[in-house]
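From the shared-data thread, chain only:
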Amino acid sequence: MQVISVAKMREADQYTIAKGTPSKELMRRAAQGVFDTYPGWADAKTLVVCGPGNNGGDGYALASIMKDHDLDVTVLRVSEKFSEDGKFYYDQCVEKGVPVLLYGTDDVNFDAYGIIVDCMLGTGFQGVPREPIAEVIGDINYARAKNGSFVIAVDINSGMNGDTGEADLAVFSDLTVSIGFYKTGFFQGKAPEIIGAFANVDIGIELPEE
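Structure, as tokens:
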């Protein structure tokens, strides 16, 4: 099992893309890896909560894959912003008819979903989550504690530092699916309290030669 820093992961991403693997393909592989890791998608309605960056893009790609399998999936956007690749997969969701809600505009009943997927903040996040993401983190954690919603975090739990495992406010997950390589923060700080179980998916990211 290889464990690397957030900076090394970012470097590996860029290296792999420079060698010829398109970033959109890496995003698709990440989403497929998350989908393949969890066997229980058909057991409940799923809410995929997407932030403004590439972590949100992973969520849109995942929702698109779920729709292809005729699963009951809804997307919740917590921002009106997109990364370039995220917008590509968001458009796919819209074209396929995935229901899309916007937090703060549309009514969202978190308790209605047996599975909630956290795709808000990626491994590069540091500090304290700001609104509306801070409020959504509270909503997700409440649905997990009150309703027993199964929470899956994609790549990392939103609000947790990928290098240190520390967090002032973070999503508590039943399963965290790391992408590419485990990050150092998964094994220190508050991570053992925040992460229930974890898995890693290999999407073909290569580490640069030293």
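Residues 3-201 form a domain with the Rossmann fold fold (CATH 3.40.50.10260).
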